[in-house]
Design brief:
- The protein is of the alpha+beta class and 130 residues long.
- It has one domain (9-26, 35-129).
- The protein contains three helices and five strands.
- The chain has a five-stranded antiparallel sheet with strand order 2-1-3-4-5, with helices on both faces.
- A hairpin with a 5-residue loop joins strand 1 (38-42) and strand 2.
- The radius of gyration is 15 Å and the shape is globular.
- The chain starts with 8 loop residues before the first helix and ends with a strand.
Length: 130
């Protein structure tokens, strides 16, 4: 059974971003249920592109895209709403803030379980289980 690793508000904000991108690219969905995984890459201008994922074998497609070194955002709602995997690579804070349309605050980067620890740097590469 999966276990949640959610520890920062920025993770929830990026999850919301993944949902917004899925809505934007809904016409490119390859599945017809809520467990549709989504993979987005970003061009040189930072604009998102949806990578269509096949119903079976999508993990291999995602691994090839990630190996290419392009910035990406992967959302796998494999058992939503109970469990969802969110992962990104090569995304810096400024890019995420631009996509969100708002800056990340110090509280977004501060551990929820240890607020006295203070904010961390936004991770360019990260994965979280909700």
């Amino acid at each position: 059974m999966p276990r949640s690793t959610f520890a920062y508000w920025f993770e929830m904000k990026v999850l919301g971003l993944a949902g917004a991108l899925a809505e934007r690219f809904a016409d490119q969905a390859t599945g017809d249920d809520e467990s549709q995984p989504w993979l987005f890459t970003f061009d040189d201008d930072g604009e998102p592109r949806c990578v269509p994922l096949p119903a079976s074998g999508w993990r291999q497609v995602a691994e090839r895209v990630k190996a290419d070194g392009r910035a990406y955002l992967l959302h796998d709602p494999f058992d939503a709403p109970e469990y969802q995997w969110l992962e990104w690579g090569g995304l810096d804070r400024q890019h995420v803030e631009r996509l969100l349309g708002e800056p990340l605050a110090a509280k977004d980067l501060t551990p929820l379980r240890d607020p006295d620890a203070g904010p961390i740097e936004f991770p360019r590469d990260h994965g979280v289980m909700f």
